[in-house]
Design a protein that fits this description.
alpha/beta, 29% helix
Length: 438
């Protein structure tokens, strides 16, 4: 009888421990810069659900990521700078440890849905810790919007009756949280929206249920509708969490993966703002970031702390009481979420190399909220010259401080990574410019 009592007590303790741990949903929008969210000052797009999350959660004004999708995804999932583990566009080295593996090992149910683009092996998502997956661009690259092709746990499925890819992925997300409502779960949701091709959504009168190619109906005017539809899908997921009584202890994080497409010029705080995807200026790296966790964040707040895409892994791990690997570069912002004393970052580091061509071009810099210093010595005053058009002489105390930080990464790049890229044959020849193109 005493043994039974001890066993029962242990089970109660274990269940209480599981109940106390938050569910975690990390949502990442594709090609979606800071200027696109209403709460940040956007005047071109309607984002009522994101605005509501911001009004009742924590909105960050200085989150910076990599200027391109794959580099950001690698940093986000591993918590490590690209200088240490990035080999080429479309690849996540299978030797890396991701937050999926960490959460799975800690007893969480893990799922991923949306855009993959990190290796075309059938088992890639499961290898990196995601027990369930619904993905686009895993084993192939079919259409992603009208009549899409998706992979469910690596099994290819094509849709031909007018289905909309983002709807199908969101249905998976809602089904995942519903089925796992009685146990702690981690859902990573890298959305397909709002990446081009800019096409009508099902809420548009121009939506074509018959098209089977992304080469049709392309028009920049559809971007606004895609933003609103993305926001709508997030709203549907949050509503389901409310219905399931999971909302209170679910940590939701929303972030963009890089700046908006340069095709798009938006109205932002009373002025035109051109997207800068691919650029190392703020137009390419500055993204929206909103965190909602009702049981912890009781009222809307705004933070000006510097945040890196490497910081998400240690933060969500600490929130779930998971040990953070020692090799992680990210800095947890969990104390900021809890309203506790914290030491925010003094600077952000960036090593960026798209690796879509064979030129091996690298941009490396360190910046804070006032200045930026590149490895080649270029130094900029970000407050007065945010477009980085007029370099200054790097002989100031501010430059010296950033140089000291940059010097920490002087020999951080493992030589075998560049050798592997050169030998892989995956690099494409640089695209030749068309006549008259600058």
């Amino acid at each position: 009888m005493r043994c039974f009592a001890l066993l029962l007590s242990s089970l109660i303790t274990l269940n209480s421990s599981f109940a106390a741990r938050p569910n975690v949903i990390l949502i990442m929008a594709d090609d979606f810069g800071y200027e696109c969210v209403g709460a940040n000052g956007s005047e071109s797009y309607k984002t009522p659900n994101l605005d509501k999350l911001a009004a009742t959660g924590l909105r960050f004004e200085n989150c910076h990521v990599q200027p391109l999708c794959t580099p950001t995804r690698v940093q986000l999932m591993t918590g490590r700078y690209n200088v240490r583990n990035y080999i080429n566009f479309g690849t996540l080295l299978r030797t890396e440890m991701t937050f999926g593996q960490l959460f799975k090992s800690a007893g969480y149910k893990t799922g991923i849905c949306g855009k993959w683009q990190l290796g075309n092996e059938v088992d890639s998502p499961q290898h990196f810790g995601f027990e369930e997956s619904c993905l686009w661009q895993q084993t192939r690259r079919p259409p992603r919007y009208a009549n899409p092709g998706l992979e469910y746990n690596g099994v290819e499925k094509d849709f031909t009756k007018g289905e909309y890819g983002p709807d199908l992925v969101n249905d998976f997300a809602i089904d995942f949280v519903t089925r796992h409502k009685a146990e702690p779960f981690f859902l990573y949701y890298p959305m397909m929206l709002t990446h081009d091709p800019f096409q009508p959504t099902p809420d548009s009168a121009e939506y074509d249920r018959t098209i089977s190619s992304e080469a049709k109906q392309r028009d920049d005017k559809h971007f606004a509708g895609m933003v609103t539809y993305m926001d709508k899908l997030i709203g549907k997921l949050v509503t389901k969490l409310d219905e399931l009584s999971l909302r209170e202890n679910t940590l939701i994080l929303f972030v963009g993966d890089n700046g908006t497409s340069s095709k798009m010029t938006s109205r932002f705080k009373g002025a035109d703002f051109q997207g800068g995807k691919g650029k190392t200026t703020h137009r390419g790296t500055h993204v929206p970031m909103i965190v909602s966790w009702p049981s912890v964040i009781k009222e809307g707040r705004v933070s000006r702390d510097l945040i890196s895409s490497t910081d998400f892994l240690p933060t969500i791990c600490q929130a779930a009481e998971i040990t953070v690997p020692a090799k992680v570069d990210g800095v947890s912002f969990l104390p900021r979420l809890k309203g506790e004393p914290n030491t925010p970052r003094e600077w952000l580091y960036m090593w960026y190399s798209p690796r879509q061509s064979k030129d091996m071009k690298v941009s490396e810099c360190v910046f804070d909220q006032a200045h930026k210093l590149y490895r080649d010595g270029s130094f900029f005053d970000l407050k007065n010259d945010p477009e980085e058009k007029s370099p200054l002489t790097a002989d100031s105390p501010a430059a010296a401080k950033l140089k000291q930080a940059l010097d920490q990464f002087q020999n951080a790049r493992p030589a075998e990574l560049d050798q592997a890229f050169e030998q892989s044959g995956k690099g494409k020849e640089p695209r030749k410019k068309k006549k008259g193109e600058k």
